[in-house]
Amino acid sequence: MRIVADENIPLLGAFFAKQAEITTHPGREICRAHLMQADALLVRSVTRVDPALLAGTPVRFVGTCTIGTDHLDLPGLQAAGIAVSSAPGCNARGVVEYVLSCLLTFSERTGKAWRSQRVGIIGVGQVGSRLANTLTALGVDCLLCDPPRAERGESGFVSLDELLAQADVISCHVPLEHQGPHATKHLLNAERLARLAQGTWLINSSRGPVIDNQALAALLLQRPDLQVALDVWEHEPQVDLALAAQCALATPHVAGYSLDGKLRGTEQIYQAFCAHFQLPATLALSELAPTAGLATIVVNEQTPTDWSLDRALRWVYDVRDDDARFRAAMAGLPVDQIAKVFDQLRKHYPLRRECSHLQLAWQGAGDLPAHWLAAGFSG
Ligand SMILES: NC(=O)c1ccc[n+]([C@@H]2O[C@H](COP(=O)([O-])OP(=O)(O)OC[C@H]3O[C@@H](n4cnc5c(N)ncnc54)[C@H](O)[C@@H]3O)[C@@H](O)[C@H]2O)c1
Ligand SMILES: O=C(O)[C@H](O)[C@H](O)COP(=O)(O)O
After folding, report:
1. 69 and 266 Cβ atoms separated by less than 8 Å
2. Distance from the CA of 205 to the center of ligand 1, in angstroms?
3. How confident is the model at residue 297 (pLDDT cuts 50, 70, 90)?
């Protein structure tokens, strides 16, 4: 068995070396010539995989160790008889922690309490539902918009128009779909962006093209009241540095870049690979992953509730560090260097662990709901 894989997939050897010979390449450089003897191709999100890439190769299984699948031509691969697996939810917890950190940062910068803001969540799947559960458990009012789920008869959703009219914060968690009844390319276009209420906090950690970046850049010239956090960009790895400069927070597509999230992605694809090739899946991530360096955070009852909670959330993940690294690396770069530096920032991302690997012990009698720990910081 032969596997060709993106060199940025962690624990490849630990999971697959017993079953296959593995060859790795930078994800953006994987080409047909690399695949002429491969049975399986394992990628992350930067390799475009379509029938043309695999034509004439023995590849029969494609696994992406990511949540997003917009880099895969799913109908084309299915028609070509290629099995495809992704890693649903693998890094969702990391994205939730990124959004919480954005809320904290905007709160500090505007003086508005983040827990009093009404948060509109567009796309309520693996990430959006975890975010909604966490925020609701913390007493934050949420508006949920997910037309595909609403059409399946599920309740509790508002329309996009209602969300735009009523939310103080908007956070996008939809897949990138270029066409169809629920297409999300430029879901937030110039017309919808113009409807954002005074002082809205807008966060995009889904895919860059979900927001019309050019329209957003034009709007921000007129609307300094808006606080925008972009983790994803319309022409990645190229970034519009003028737009980045107008954003309150700018990061290089790392919202879900916890070590835990990446390792879970590899494990999920290992399981799918074994199932596809009818091999025994004898390895589990719990045996291979490093243990967390920090096991317990105690939020002290002597300190004011919000301060303690905010402090604990900052310990878990501080988006300001990633924003600072991004701005420092991008400062004054010639246009033809931006994409390379963007990829380097991602390849050499610092170690980050999720809070699901920590225990947050709440000892206070403050206003934190009793179910907070379970609802907010698990899974
Ligand atoms: N920045 C990052 O590091 C990062 C990490 C993980 C995922 N992502 C992106 O976030 C996306 C969402 O992740 P997920 O795990 O929640 O995916 P998911 O598939 O579990 O959920 C997506 C939800 O969006 C809904 N949806 C689809 N079209 C919609 C529309 N037009 N309007 C509103 N809702 C719509 C779906 O019904 C679904 O419930 C992924 O597709 C990926 O592109 C980014
Ligand atoms: O879709 C996902 O899971 C995320 O966007 C993920 O963080 C992408 O990571 P990459 O493939 O770019 O390493």
Report:
1. no
2. 9
3. low
